[in-house]
């Protein structure tokens, strides 16, 4: 059983065009992958910042609750809250619970293959840029060379050959028409056949 398609080696131009198009498709996939990675990194960064903020708020609430339990209403005062809320143990406990739940729900993303590739590209930015430019030039050249060469050297001559074959068939049919008309009067059936073939009976 053949698992992979046979490479189009019937002519060089078709093979070059297919390779170029596949390379361009690979380049498009790489660009989309990098764009997705950039978006994912942005999402992960925002999640990390939110987690850091939650940890900071959790420490603030913990310190304020501890200060109230010790009877010190001025220690670890939270500037973002009003005086009433700063002195409300129930509110502080509820806020601390929410911050703890948010912290527990955060899970750092494990790096995968795309992350490793993206890290390599960022670490070797100049080399990656040069490789990308060379890759794009080769892919574009193969595509243009293959398609233009196939059109000029393969498709064009084939079309012309088909036209010549059609003209030869019409000429042969016309010759046969003339020979038959010179030998004997043409029957109505034969006339219809020639008319359907697009051959007009020559004037005598």
Order of helices and strands: HHHHHH
Distance between the termini: 65 Å
Low-pLDDT ranges: 200-204
Q: What level of helicity do the residues show?
A: over 70%
How many helical stretches?
Answer: 6
- The beta-strand count equals 0
Transmembrane segments: 12-37, 126-150
Keywords: Membrane, Transmembrane, Transmembrane helix
Can you give a write-up of this model?
The chain is mainly α. It has one domain. α1 packs antiparallel against α3, α1 runs antiparallel to α5 and α4 crosses α5. The longest helix has 59 residues.
Task: Tag the structure with descriptive keywords.
204 residues, rod-shaped, mainly alpha
TL;DR?
With 204 residues, the protein is mainly α.
What is the topology?
Layout: H1 12-69, H2 83-86, H3 89-104, H4 113-123, H5 125-183, H6 188-196
Helix pairs in contact: 1-3, 1-5, 4-5
